[in-house]
Amino acid sequence: MINYDVKKIYEWPFLAQLFIMVIVSLFIIYFGYFIDLIPLQNQIKTIYQQELDLKDQFKVSLDQQVAITNDILLLPKLQQLLVLWEQRFITAPDLPALLDAILKSGQENGLKFNLFDPGSEVKQGKYTMIPLRINMTGTYDQIASFMSQVANMPKLVVIGKFTLSNEAASEDQANSNPEPINSDLGLTADLTLEIYRL
Questions:
Q1: Domain chopping of the chain, boundaries
Q2: CATH C-level class of 92-197
Q3: Concatenated DSSP letters for the chain?
Q4: pLDDT one-digit tens code per residue, 133-146
Q5: Is-above-0.90 flag for pTM?
């Protein structure tokens, strides 16, 4: 076996010198990679993450801009709709006429009013709601026709709580032999209408 002296490397055969030079060069490159390139890789990763964050922020901003643009384009339609809705609200002087129209509609349908009580006004932001409690007697068809007419009034009247019960039957009779709801027997309806005014 040949004994190579490192101090006399210049005397070694060319292939052995070349091999050592390649090893040393690889070691220097590898060491340089850790010193120079790894921090650059970390910088590249950080910059890449910043790029992704900026793209996400840009997408969010773009989506917001599109939404705002759509809202701006929709604004005239919404304003028209608001004007139409506000036309459906009554004013204080119109309240007696609306109450008379509701009573007249009930009478035209053959209903008997046991209670017709406009309650206290409730302020709801820009508008005021007037609850109207009604207790009436009639057939199913009469009550349904009345409620349909009230729901389709040109002014904003909303049907709130509503219960329908058999007028003549006691609780025992109702449990043992209930009549069909659409029969011609008298039914009692208890409902609350919500009238909105400006």
A1: 10-88, 92-197
A2: alpha beta
A3: -----GGGGGGS-HHHHHHHHHHHHHHHHHHHIIIIIHHHHHHHHHHHHHHHHHHHHHHHHHHHHHHHHHHHHHHHHHHHHHHHHHHHSB-GGGHHHHHHHHHHHHHHTT-EEEEEEE---EEETTEEEEEEEEEEEE-HHHHHHHHHHHHT-SS-EEEEEEEEEESS--HHHHHHSPPPTTSSS-EEEEEEEEEEE-
A4: 999 999 989 999 99
A5: no
